[in-house]
């Protein structure tokens, strides 16, 4: 990987610390009050709406400024969120949850836009799979250290102490953002593309072979990724609310993902086979969760963690490979629309969960069925999209799965 891509990995490591903390302990902080699925769903919905708006705004900023600005703004939004957690106590809980989700979503959206657009503009086809696999490894390492350290800090100093610790990491992010490569969207030399520069239209985003299959893949992925993201947490919270035990369970999930990484490196196989395997493990995990026994919920999370590793490594690499030979304006438009479609379908799934009062019953089973159906569609439409693109562009879709580590 190039020096610029490595710098993006450093920033990713810093943001991952805050992301993992928020993903576990801010959701737990909200859940512990009334143990309502609707509260957690509302927070996540507010977060994703803000995330999408911030992502689009960051893409617009990158037509004039480098990725340093949105990364800096991301750190400031994160700081505002933790300051709000430390100081605000509203009687209207619904309003309090929404107002918390907005700066958290802005932080994620700004950071993701800067990093994804940076990778798309700076990376080459052979770097995408190693980059996303390295990102996944960083997340796994952070996922071992952060929950245990945070649980200890919360036990010793309360949630306020852990919020202050996250503010320190956001201050570090602010400093490191000034050292990031000066990657920005350059105005295309081609007059036709130059006229549409900064507009991020749908036609510019999806004016390539296989676009309809990519859109279907994005819509399906948003549903199942949000299900896995939300219910992996709620399954864990249903087993125990002891913070150290939650941290140790997350360590177990991380170790299972590292087992998946070892198998990924040990057995060379085609990309689509890994994608199908990942989806199969995810489907099995979702079905096992229907048993509602604590042991079944833990096994479910182990299977879906391994499955998500295989899915995310292949699917993200293929998505970025799809736009490798597009112009900068087309790449930016695609990534903005990609994020918006994922967020829209994530919110659709969250809306379905708002009426749930427990992790069982007809409503929950129906959501599981919809999720599995969406998930199994992805390898079919993804392969159609890549075949359509290969007929028009020399896309580097290697027959074997790329190594998840590289330089």
TrEMBL record:
InterPro entries: MFS_trans_sf. Keywords: Membrane, Transmembrane, Transmembrane helix. Gene3D superfamilies: MFS general substrate transporter like domains (1.20.1250.20). This is MFS transporter. It comes from Cohnella xylanilytica. Signal peptide: none annotated. The chain crosses the membrane at residues 9-30, 42-62, 69-87, 93-111, 131-151, 157-178, 213-238, 244-262, 274-291, 297-315, 362-381. It comes from the Bacteria.
């Amino acid at each position: 990987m190039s020096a610029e891509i490595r710098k993006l990995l450093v920033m990713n490591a810093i943001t991952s610390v805050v992301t993992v903390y928020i993903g576990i302990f801010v959701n737990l902080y909200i859940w512990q009050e009334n143990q309502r699925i609707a509260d957690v769903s509302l927070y996540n919905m507010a977060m994703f709406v803000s995330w999408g708006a911030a992502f689009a705004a960051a893409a617009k900023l990158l037509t004039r400024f480098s990725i340093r600005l949105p990364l800096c703004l991301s750190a400031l939004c994160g700081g505002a969120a933790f300051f709000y957690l430390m100081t605000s106590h509203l009687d209207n809980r619904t309003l309090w949850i929404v107002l918390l989700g907005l700066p958290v979503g802005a932080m994620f959206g700004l950071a993701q836009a800067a990093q994804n657009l940076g990778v798309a503009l700076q990376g080459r086809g052979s770097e995408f799979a190693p980059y996303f696999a390295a990102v996944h490894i960083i997340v796994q390492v952070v996922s071992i250290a952060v929950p245990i350290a945070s649980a200890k800090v919360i036990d010793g100093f309360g949630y306020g102490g852990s919020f202050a610790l996250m503010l320190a990491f956001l201050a570090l992010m602010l400093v490191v953002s000034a050292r990031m490569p000066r990657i920005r969207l350059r105005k295309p030399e081609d007059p036709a593309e130059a006229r549409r520069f900064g507009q991020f239209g749908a036609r510019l985003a999806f004016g390539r072979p296989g676009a309809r299959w990519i859109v279907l893949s994005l819509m399906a992925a948003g549903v199942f990724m949000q299900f896995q993201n939300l219910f992996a947490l709620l399954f864990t919270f249903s087993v125990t609310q002891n913070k150290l035990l939650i941290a140790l369970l997350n360590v177990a999930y991380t170790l299972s993902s590292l087992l998946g990484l070892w198998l990924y490196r040990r057995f060379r196989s085609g990309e689509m086979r890994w994608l199908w395997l990942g989806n199969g493990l995810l489907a099995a995990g979702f079905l096992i969760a229907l048993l509602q026994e604590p042991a079944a919920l833990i096994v479910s999370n182990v299977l879906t963690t391994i499955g998500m590793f295989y899915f995310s490594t292949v699917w993200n690499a293929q998505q970025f490979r799809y736009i490798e030979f597009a112009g900068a304006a087309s790449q930016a438009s695609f990534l903005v629309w990609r994020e918006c479609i994922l967020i829209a379908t994530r919110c659709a799934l969250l809306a379905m969960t708002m009426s749930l009062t427990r992790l069982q019953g007809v409503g929950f089973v129906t959501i599981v069925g919809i999720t599995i159906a969406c998930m199994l569609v992805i390898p079919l439409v993804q392969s159609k999209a890549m075949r359509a693109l290969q007929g028009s562009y020399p896309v580097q879709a290697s027959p074997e799965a790329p190594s998840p580590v590289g330089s």
